[in-house]
Amino acid sequence: MSAHCCEHDTPRPETIAHLARYRRILWIALLLNAAMFVLELGAGYRAGSVSLLADAIDFAGDALNYGVSLAVLSAALVWRARAALVKAASMMGFGLFVLGRAGWSVFTGVLPDATTMGVIGLCALAVNLGVAWMLYAFREGDANMRSVWLCSRNDAIGNLAVMAAALGVLGTGTAWPDLAVAAVMASLALHGGWQVWRHARSELDQDGHGHGHVH
């Protein structure tokens, strides 16, 4: 393997903002996430799976996040950081919602359809791995770009967990594996959202200090 195959130089944020390639990737990611939201929402309700419903809501949030990223792509750093704060709040809000939904499902006792969970989880994994691979070169950009990368990475991990939950439901005949995975996905969203929030706040603080020294 060539040494060049292992080199993943991250373009500077100022350069990325004007890269047609990055904008095109965001559009592709937005459309794929919107399509998966519709697919998983229907499948999650039919299968009675909290983890699939959680993943569907996550896809919807990601589609919105990609739209926000496109809107502020060429904006000043302060606006990109503010957009990242909004996205961080949505990630953490998603996590709290899933925890609440999982807690409610404990009392309903609905057994999810393991086959549907596995098949849809595999489709979702393929989409998220593809998006994460396309965004890999931009993972160390500003807070807004970092949030896009973190969302895709965490989503792929969540899809693997959904597939594992499908096997667990099939093997145990209970809904507990599905509920456990939903809780894990909520934790990933909360952790990722907090990371993005801290990074964005740091950029806003630096921008404020920079303007404070201008005379």
Automatic annotation (TrEMBL):
UniProt topology in membrane:
Multi-pass membrane protein
- Cation efflux protein transmembrane domain mapped to chain residues: 26-75, 83-204
- Membrane in keyword set: yes
What keyword terms does UniProt attach to this protein? Membrane, Transmembrane, Transmembrane helix
Mention one GO molecular function: monoatomic cation transmembrane transporter activity
* Compartment annotation: Membrane
Q: Name one GO cellular component term.
A: membrane
- List, alphabetically, the Pfam families matched: Cation_efflux
Q: Where are the transmembrane segments?
A: 25-43, 63-79, 91-111, 117-136, 156-173
The name this protein goes by in its record: Co/Zn/Cd efflux system component
